[in-house]
Amino acid sequence: MPKRPVSACAAGLAALVASLSAAPALALQTAAPSALDLALHGEDPAWSITADLTTEIGPRPAGTEREAAARRWAVARLKAMGFANVREETYDMRTWVRGEEKAWLTAPFLPQSLAITALGNSGSTGAAGFEGDVVYFAGFDALQAAPDAAVKGKIVFIDNQMKPTQDGSGYGYYGRGRFQGPNVAAKKGARAIVIRSIGTDNHRNPHAGVTNFDDGVKPIPAGAISNPDADLLVGQLRRIEAGAAAPVPLRMKLLLTPRDLGQQKSGNVIAEVPGSDTHASPVILACHLDSWDLATGAIDDAAGCGIITAAARHVMTAGQPRRTIRLLWAGAEEVGAFGGQAYFDAHGKERHAVALESDFGADRIWRVDFGLPDSAKPLADRIAAALAPLGVTRGRDRAGGGADIGALVAAGVPAIDLQQDGTRYFDWHHTPDDTLDKVDPVQLRQNVAVWTATVASLANSSDTELP
Amino acid sequence: MPKRPVSACAAGLAALVASLSAAPALALQTAAPSALDLALHGEDPAWSITADLTTEIGPRPAGTEREAAARRWAVARLKAMGFANVREETYDMRTWVRGEEKAWLTAPFLPQSLAITALGNSGSTGAAGFEGDVVYFAGFDALQAAPDAAVKGKIVFIDNQMKPTQDGSGYGYYGRGRFQGPNVAAKKGARAIVIRSIGTDNHRNPHAGVTNFDDGVKPIPAGAISNPDADLLVGQLRRIEAGAAAPVPLRMKLLLTPRDLGQQKSGNVIAEVPGSDTHASPVILACHLDSWDLATGAIDDAAGCGIITAAARHVMTAGQPRRTIRLLWAGAEEVGAFGGQAYFDAHGKERHAVALESDFGADRIWRVDFGLPDSAKPLADRIAAALAPLGVTRGRDRAGGGADIGALVAAGVPAIDLQQDGTRYFDWHHTPDDTLDKVDPVQLRQNVAVWTATVASLANSSDTELP
Fold first, then answer.
1. Which one GO biological process term can you cite for this protein (chains A, B) (predicted)?
2. What is the pTM of this model?
3. In this predicted model, what pLDDT tens digit does every residue of B199-236 receive, in sequence order?
4. Does the complex come out with an ipTM higher than 0.90?
5. Size of interface A-B (CB pairs under 8 A)
């Protein structure tokens, strides 16, 4: 498949992986390969899971028949790969689906069409759509500070441009425009809200994502336009201010017709590598199987499921671990981590040794953060030492886990974060561009190698180290 | 406006332009600035024309009211900039407009939606669309070699992946799938044709562009899907071949409803810098004002109009040239260079000293090619010497001009090609992504400086050098 030119960084990584592969390749002839050997130069189940799931199933919106089809696909694949106790655990959840979505800047310049997508839980404009005056806010804070009178009856626009960072740290700050902006705008009486996409790219692909309205607040139509479309909107506003057009408000026509389907079925898929010590608590590895509907969900999060499953498979192939490794392919993460909550509701009272999640793309792991009990210091040291040759530095942050293991970690389960390079992630996150071609097989292999080394250590850790 | 990180190449260019700017900046205090001085550190009309045209008018499809609005905008802007003899010259042309456009891979896997756009002059599927079997061809040559029986009644797919080159030289070869593929498929009895976009990117934005059917061949529906969508299609085909699904044909549903509006008005906009020698033949600088309809046409070709106009303006400001400089903002280039032909029909018998066109984006000029009479060797040497400090090498190809001056050059008018760097051009060409943010102001300034130095030489050349 066509690939963009590989970056210098990725080329260096390829050399690193190649150098690490050389010695074990010889070792293979005399001894059973280690799990890491398998990850570095064996089959690549992370790639094949990502490629097959995105090609054969594609978009997997939470609560829909497509997500159910993905669960059936996952069960079949995990069984075929030799995992044990493969099963679906379903639950019901309120389900929102996209309808038509169009927008235009209509005046005072010639009408121009905007690339827009509705935010999850957006209200509907009705089939006829409506037109209104645009009121500009530079960011979420400006909207929050505005008097209701400045917002009432208007189409709110929030303009905040996220920039790429390796650790993805801008998402929380800039993301407030999406997470909270619609709720705040609705409370102030706005007719609708349109935000600059929470994304770092410059393509005509808007970034979807969920928003939430407080109980009792009627959802207003809420959408995101692409960065170039936001630039256009700002350019027109500046020209109006500069007198290039009559001093009239910028007008937008909006058509968003999402629907609430009420309670629908969603579910988790669970699979295990049974440990040799049936009394030992399991290691939980999580990803999410659902995706947004605009693309095939390759980096979010087919690759995550591929990565954790490949790591577990390599450990299993190298020899039965002491602890059970449990894979959680969670449902309905995108719309509020319903799958993770359902897992916790069903299993939260069981013992868990440690939980990890892969849900930040398919690029290389660059740092490891620990959230382990003090008793696990030797274990953390072993893992850090094992990962250093793979180019992973030891971080100082306390590991927080991911959305699908959030309830477990909040309840005290230890966690490790294998930090993925997020520099490119928010170029594609929740857009039509989240497709297989964005996965770099060289970076993916390093990622799986890091996971494999980590899981091998965890699954063979002692009961004095982990609960 | 948000910008992507500037490349090392562009950063080096910025340093070059800065170094060239330093000395003339001092000279300004004692002598009138040269045209090149103005281009290097004066106002940047190329940027403002590109920004204003894309923001205030946007898409400008040939033969439509939007193109007419763009002509009115152009006349007003060119008059305001001080050009003389500013006028529209209109003509009638057959006009094709886009309708609905959707496609899905429907079987044997779960249905997946494809990002598709109709090719110019495509036929319609009718409002209901239709579904058919896909027949695969690796490239145009494979389609041409196929027996009619392999194609008849099918939806032809042509899969050829264009790669970036600095001189854009892949376009002619890979472009045959678009230029000729639909005509060949129609003659063989295909029901429709879908091609992999003629583009070098990996975004979910299909590349539009014109195709032509021979007289007497009924146009079939013809569309381009984005590169990631083409990857998906190929991925599904490979899985069918490998036995992952039943050995059945890949099915596609297609809905394309473009319409032919018959004869509509289009037109050129012409403006001049009058020369001091009324007997001298003029220098023609061309761009095109129309654009495809999916975006604002920033790189294709608002920037080209900005570049030639900035160069003419800088030469005019520095002092009246000997020859008249005539700007041709041509209409209807995208659908067959109707504006260039109309100019030739009206003015082809007049004398023209030389013709140049800017229609390959807004990136730096890296090479100059000449197509001048032998008498102009000293002139070519002067231009090559003037451009070398701007980072432009002298090429050995014979200049061929561009589409809008094609008829003039074919009739013997001398030409110069200022070759723009096309490495990024086919990432955005004819897609929804051809927007202002793709224009790099640093590269644009170098481009205008090169044009300005060239036009200053040409407009003051002698009658022994140019006809």
1. proteolysis
2. 0.93
3. 999 999 999 999 999 999 999 999 999 999 999 999 99
4. yes
5. 120
